[in-house]
Design the sequence.
């Protein structure tokens, strides 16, 4: 499928999802759907660096929180509409991704992974000690109950849901476009054999920096509407390890080789977690994610996508 | 305001004692990451597990935490050997340790933390022993036993590991595996078996480090996360797996953290180690002793 056609299809699917959700018109659906879509964005963003380039980012929560806190900061300093906040958050998180990559990407891959873990704690300490954005006590972000669009009253949660839906569509379209472009092939050479790629003249450092910047920016964008979604933000909830684990587990479980893996993983795990939070408890559902992650990397290293592909290949022969 | 020199000296000495304890925390990673090239980011989770076992035995049966740590050495060794076997079969053999091996250890870290939260909750747990509380006092310098004992025992642990690695047959084989695995195969030694032993030892040190941790401070499941930064900051500062380097890195971090906590408040302390780690990675990736 041509990239342009794919983008069109994505837009049509996103619109269809929104209209079906409108028909059900249950507020809880929008609340739960927002979280699932947020994971779609995080998982897709993680996969641009992790799946395509083979560099593990443990600091997804940090980029997410940077987005969320840039919104809190602007909310206190100079309130702006959410789409603008998303762009600002994307810019800030992208710059942090670039800086982070510049400092560590010349080293072996595992150091980058450890450094991202470190980044999360440094940023959390900074935010906890920064009183303007609430410090350790947290910050309230008062949002209206509904939004006035051409005389229609739209519940605010539907507005947030729509933003996240658009963001998810953008993320998936970006990932898929990269996959089929020169950039994507460059990423693949880094993943398969960085030394050989470097020797063959692939500008590996520049490509890796593009990947960290893009991936970080998308994660930050996913975090931007988060304070408005919760109405209250504190460091523990923005930097929750849950985001880091989920954004690794979802692509790993779905399959890291293409855009569809993180999507499947995020939808599946996201929905399972929503159900488990309601029926069992939220502590158990994060445990489920951890166990699934370990089980999948051991048993099905190529995720659900790889597993299905294997079955199909076997069926043909 | 004149500079509180006594406070500074106390902070430095407390930092040295803390650094001694950090040796026990890091030495396992120096072996697994530095010698075996296994990026075990779950190491702090094993330490916290050790702390909780020491806490249970201490509160239920009244056993001394250090004794529990010693008794747990073989258990943790077996646990480590088992983890390595899974790691080898699932990742190392297939050549997938870079991406999936990291995710595997991250998953273990996470499962341990959430598992402990589910069983024990997020309350702080502490151990009781006669030496927790009293301190020796020289002039204006305080030497609390709860810091002194882990520090001395950590140094002993490091010394015995150093002797083991340089004097015994197995120890030398572990060092050889770190340098050239293929050459070892040609010498008719099995590198996998040796790596299994070495990884077992590295996890066994976590049992002792965990017991020390619960003596030094109250423990809750997510404390492990702070130690990820410390462990790897020390590991990188110390020059990636050299044991003497580990001592220097641990002492340095302990002192800087202690000074920061004394003069700027303990809420800044975690940022110190991570900041150190980032700066070292960026500017001196081979460590302070490195070329």
Sequence:
């Amino acid at each position: 499928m041509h990239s342009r056609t794919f983008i069109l299809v994505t837009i049509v699917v996103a619109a269809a999802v929104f209209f079906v959700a409108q028909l059900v018109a249950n507020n809880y659906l929008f609340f739960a759907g927002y979280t699932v879509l947020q994971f779609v964005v995080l998982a897709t963003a993680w996969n641009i660096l992790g799946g395509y380039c083979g560099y593990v980012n443990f600091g997804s929560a940090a980029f997410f929180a940077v987005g969320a806190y840039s919104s809190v900061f602007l909310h206190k300093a100079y309130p702006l509409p959410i789409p603008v906040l998303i762009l600002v958050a994307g810019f800030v998180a992208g710059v942090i991704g670039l800086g982070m990559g510049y400092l560590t990407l010349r080293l072996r891959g595992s150091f980058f992974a450890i450094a991202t873990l470190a980044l999360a704690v440094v940023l959390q300490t900074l935010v906890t000690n920064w009183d303007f954005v609430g410090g350790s006590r947290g910050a309230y972000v008062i949002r209206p109950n509904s939004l006035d669009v051409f005389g229609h009253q739209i519940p605010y949660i539907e507005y947030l849901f729509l933003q996240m839906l658009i963001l998810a569509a953008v993320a998936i379209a970006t990932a898929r476009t990269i996959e089929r472009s020169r950039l994507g092939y460059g990423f693949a050479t880094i993943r398969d054999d960085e030394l050989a790629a470097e020797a063959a003249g692939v500008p590996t450092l520049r490509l890796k920096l593009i990947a960290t910047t893009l991936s970080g920016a998308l994660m930050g964008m996913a975090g931007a509407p988060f304070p408005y979604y919760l109405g209250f933000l504190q460091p523990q909830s923005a930097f929750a390890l849950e985001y880091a684990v989920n954004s690794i587990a979802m692509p790993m479980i779905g399959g890291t080789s293409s855009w569809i893996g993180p999507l499947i993983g995020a939808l599946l795990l996201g929905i399972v977690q929503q159900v488990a939070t309601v029926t069992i408890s939220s502590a158990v559902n994060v445990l489920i994610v951890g166990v699934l992650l370990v089980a999948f990397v051991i048993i099905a290293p190529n995720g659900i996508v790889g597993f299905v592909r294997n079955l199909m290949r076997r069926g043909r022969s | 305001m004149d500079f509180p020199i006594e406070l500074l000296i106390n902070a430095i000495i407390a930092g040295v004692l803390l650094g001694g304890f950090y040796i026990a925390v890091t030495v396992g990673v120096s072996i697994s990451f530095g010698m075996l090239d296994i990026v075990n980011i779950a190491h702090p989770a094993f330490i916290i597990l050790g702390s909780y076992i020491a806490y249970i035995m201490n509160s239920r049966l009244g056993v001394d935490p250090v004794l529990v740590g010693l008794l747990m050495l073989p258990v943790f060794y077996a646990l480590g050997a088992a983890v390595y076997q899974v790691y080898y079969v699932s990742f190392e053999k297939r050549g997938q340790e870079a991406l999936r091996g990291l995710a595997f250890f991250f998953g273990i870290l996470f499962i341990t933390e959430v598992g402990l939260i589910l069983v024990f909750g997020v309350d702080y747990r502490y151990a009781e022993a006669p030496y927790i509380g009293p301190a020796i006092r020289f002039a204006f310098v305080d030497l609390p036993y709860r810091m002194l004992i882990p520090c001395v025992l950590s140094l002993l642990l490091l010394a015995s590991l150093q002797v083991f690695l340089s004097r015994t047959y197995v120890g030398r084989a572990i060092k050889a595996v770190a340098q050239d695995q293929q050459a070892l195969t040609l010498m008719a030694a099995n590198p996998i078996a040796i790596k299994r032993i070495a990884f077992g030892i590295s996890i066994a040190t976590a049992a002792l480090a965990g017991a020390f941790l619960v003596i030094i401070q109250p423990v809750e499941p997510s404390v492990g996360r702070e130690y990820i930064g410390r462990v790897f900051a020390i590991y990188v500062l110390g020059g990636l797996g050299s044991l003497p380097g580990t001592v220097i890195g641990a002492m340095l971090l302990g002192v800087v953290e202690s000074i920061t906590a004394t003069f700027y408040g303990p809420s800044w302390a975690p940022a110190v180690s991570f900041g150190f780690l980032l700066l070292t990675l960026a500017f001196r990736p081979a460590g302070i002793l490195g070329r």
Notes: Chain B has a mean pLDDT of 83. Residues 5-223 of chain B form one domain.
